[in-house]
Amino acid sequence: MVSRVIPVEPFDLVIFGGTGDLARRKILPGLYRRMLAGQMPTEARIIGAARSKLSHKAFREMIAEALDTFIGAEKLDPEMAKTFLSRLHYMHVDAMGEDGWDDLGALLDKDANPVRAFYLSVGPSLFGPIAEKLYNTGIATSSSRIVVEKPLGHDLASAKALNAQLAESFDERQVYRIDHYLGKETVQNLMAVRFANALFEPLWNARHVDHVQITVSESIGTGGRGAYYDKSGAMRDMVQNHLMQLLCLTAMEPPGRFEADRVRDEKLKVIRALEPVQPDEAVRGQYRAGPEGPDYKTDAENPDSRTESYVALKVHIANWRWTGTPFYLRTGKRLRARMSEIAVIFKEPPHAIFPKLPAHQSNALVIRLQPDEGITMRMTIKEPGPGGMRLADVPLDMTFADALGPDAGDMPDAYERLIMDVIRGDQTLFMRGDEVEAAWEWTDAILDDWQERRDVPKPYDAGGSGPEDALALMHHDGRRWREIEV
């Protein structure tokens, strides 16, 4: 199966923080791949902006090294790479001062393209000042787009303050709050599976679904960013944004049309229907030392840390579709494997006609985000051969790399897809301001409860599945977590 590439309009994209890690590791290599695929028009310009005083040549040399590192010299087309680098420009711009803004405006006005976008790959403290400068200098037009990365606030109050700052300079229709999880092929396929097939939607409710598990596990620890991570923790870093978005797409009602605000309206309804999480429905933990490295407190450089590296929650949605069906969310660092998946576990048949046979697993629809993106449906069948009715659980597997042929291995990275959506002006896969605030309001209640009770994270073994209390969270309900495995 060959994917169809639709070119976008000519654009000017300014990347603030253009010399930073995200720009070199994800944004610019992704744009190179879009050019290689024929999606980027020849008139497109990409402008890196940062405090460093670099020449255009020095910036291009820096990005050439990044392409070698993050794409691989063996995968680069030398001529195409040369063409891509020729489209790069660099501007020294002081986000908090006056230097460079006039020069940036002059460059953009010369041979201006129809689409003008600004990617703020910088710390959130600079979002407001940069947005204000873009507006006051006239660099941002009424049709310009601005992209902001997480963290989108530290709590509800800071999220509201950030939204208010952005609103002073840009309309909501111009603001793109990026969550790279929503750019993953399988996440979007979740909507296709639900709403483009008559098979699943009639079963997608509390009458037929026993429970849903959403897992995002990482095998690494906090690495060299332990002191930074200790100020946020798994709840702020992963649950409030990534897992919340996966929950919303799994639980939302069908929108009237596949349009940005209609999809986001339905996601917002899910967040507002979330019931408060009770103390015995939330577990958090910290990893112990293991073969891969020291314990969490050592990584965080804080021997008294009460910040969680692991969270497990039992979540209830108070609406007609999902009342009675719990959603179990978990995420953590230094676990057994790097894995992200959504598992919809269906109920057992209402009457067992094979009572003498051993119990078998329930049907499950598993949407795997990483590694090996794909969708699997576990079905129960009869084992072939004589000797009676023996049941076996088998997967109906649609791993994209197998089902869609060699082109599946070249699927766009999440950042590639989302940046092209920015250029197209499609906000469907981006969070709206009220959506972010609603997620923080729900999250803050859990964080405040932990703070008031002075809750201490439970230790868990590095390379395992998380704290024992998280296993008990499921066992008390007569259920089990799915195995964390590659």
TrEMBL record:
Glucose-6-phosphate dehydrogenase C-terminal domain sequence ranges: 191-482
Residues annotated as catalytic: H242 (proton acceptor)
Ranges where the Glucose-6-phosphate dehydrogenase NAD-binding domain occurs: 14-189
Database matches in InterPro entries: G6P_DH, G6P_DH_AS, G6P_DH_C, G6P_DH_NAD-bd, NAD(P)-bd_dom_sf
Compositionally biased intervals (Basic and acidic residues): 294-304
Record-given protein name: Glucose-6-phosphate 1-dehydrogenase
The species this protein was found in: Pontivivens insulae
Domain of life: Bacteria
Cellular component terms (Gene Ontology): cytosol
GO molecular function: glucose-6-phosphate dehydrogenase activity; NADP binding
Gene: zwf
Summary of the function given for this chain in its UniProt record: Catalyzes the oxidation of glucose 6-phosphate to 6-phosphogluconolactone.
